[in-house]
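U., I forgot to send this yesterday:
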Amino acid sequence: MIAMLMNLLFLIAQDNTGGGDQASSGPGSYMLVIYIVLFIGIFYFLLIRPGQKQRKQHDQLVSAISKGDEIMTAGGLFGTITQVKEDHVMIDLGKKNVVKLSRNSIARIVSKSEKAEMEQQPEEGAEEEE
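Result:
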């Protein structure tokens, strides 16, 4: 889609530079401005705005964490928060493994129902014999 818009802008620009004695501020140059503004608007609504929403949601998530929350990190580790500091948290991964982790690397808070589902699923390496 972006390639089509760029080709269209290129063709419009070629049409404007083709004339010898014509003034460069004809109807084609108005269309070029309209297409550029349209392209910037599409770019904003497809890329910039959704990124801002995701960043805002992540900031709310990070500010809402507290001691005892079950979380998943960006690297896929699951653990329980044992201590919350201004710029980092301490996470218990189980069997006395405690890790210091940046607050920004927390991907999500695992709800109680998700935790129960994960514990009920059999592990991949374990096979049930009948």
